[in-house]
Amino acid sequence: MMNRAAIAAAEVILEVYRRPVVAMEKADGSPVTEADQRAETIILEYLAETGLPVLAEESVAAGRIPELGARYFVVDPLDGTKEFLKRNGEFTVNIAYCEDGHPVSGVVLAPATGEIYWGGPDGAFAGRLAGDAIEGVAPLQVAEAEHPLRIVASRSHGHAALAELCDTLEVAEDVSVGSSLKFCLLAKGDAQLYPRFTPTSEWDTAAGQAVLQAAGGVVLGMDGLPLTCGHRDDKFLNAWFVAAASQKLALRALAEMLRFVDA
Ligand SMILES: Nc1ncnc2c1ncn2[C@@H]1O[C@H](COP(=O)(O)O)[C@@H](OP(=O)(O)O)[C@H]1O
Ligand SMILES: [Mg+2]
């Protein structure tokens, strides 16, 4: 059902993507487009069948914050709006299902390329959209190889500490990519580490986290525990985190990242 909702949202996003796009500015200064809003409306229609609350980026921006119980969805209808506006294809539809604050399952779909990644208790999978169908479905599994280490980072939100971390951890290659596709690169074994030094919201990470966890990876906050959702008092913002192919690698990176906290 989450996959169907994401596919329907992707169709609307592509329709907008094919014509000249006009960006508006949200209250927090970040860009939003007609695609973000229309995609979210469609996803909410699909998820309404479940009767569960939905924490969704554009609804929250408009002041519609649901009362979250133990089970709810977290939605970013268009993650990587900056990449969407740059027309580089690196934007995604994200839907996660959470229980007791933990992302349990999720889907990340890149409309421009048709790549779809999903994961949950039954494992993690990737495929490619062919109309409404998904073809070439294959299981996802992280690749833990620690040397050479491949690191992924935000294309639009870098941080000075990243260069130093790359030196310390003997990183072979660093790849920049927009949006939650970074989690998917780890899930499919193309990279091992995604350290995030700049803020994100829960809807930017929940679906990618579910996919990565289902593929054998981890997403840890600075306390060394898996990231959790539903933090209304923090305005649903995540602090720094690290996503990695293994717990061991995540903890090694965290030890380095802690040196930069408040630096
Ligand atoms: N200061 C900030 N506070 C909260 N989230 C931020 C932020 N700066 C960037 N982000 C988030 O980072 C996302 C993009 O990630 P990346 O830089 O890895 O591509 C954006 O998603 P949207 O495009 O959905 O707004 C946005 O939510
Ligand atoms: Mg986002």
Let me know the number of strands.
Answer: 16
Shape: globular
Q: Which ligands accompany this protein? A: adenosine-3'-5'-diphosphate, magnesium ion
Low-confidence blocks of residues: none
Structural class by secondary-structure content: alpha+beta
Strand content: 25-35%
| Estimated helix fraction | 25-40%
Q: Mean pLDDT, nearest integer?
A: 93
Radius of gyration: 17 Å
C-alpha termini separation: 44 Å
What do these coordinates show?
The chain is built from 8 helices and 16 strands. The protein is α+β, with helices and mostly antiparallel strands. The protein folds into 2 domains: about 1-140, Fructose-1,6-Bisphosphatase, subunit A, domain 1 (Fructose-1,6-Bisphosphatase, Chain A, domain 1, 2-Layer Sandwich); about 150-260, D-Maltodextrin-Binding Protein, domain 2 (3-Layer(aba) Sandwich), CATH 3.40.190.80. A 7-stranded mixed β-sheet has the order 3-4-5-6-7-8-9, sandwiched between helices. It is globular. The model has no long low-confidence stretch (mean pLDDT about 95). The chain binds adenosine-3'-5'-diphosphate and magnesium ion. The site of adenosine-3'-5'-diphosphate has 18 residues, from strand 4, helix 4 and strand 13. Its EC number is 3.1.3.7. This is 3'(2'),5'-bisphosphate nucleotidase CysQ.
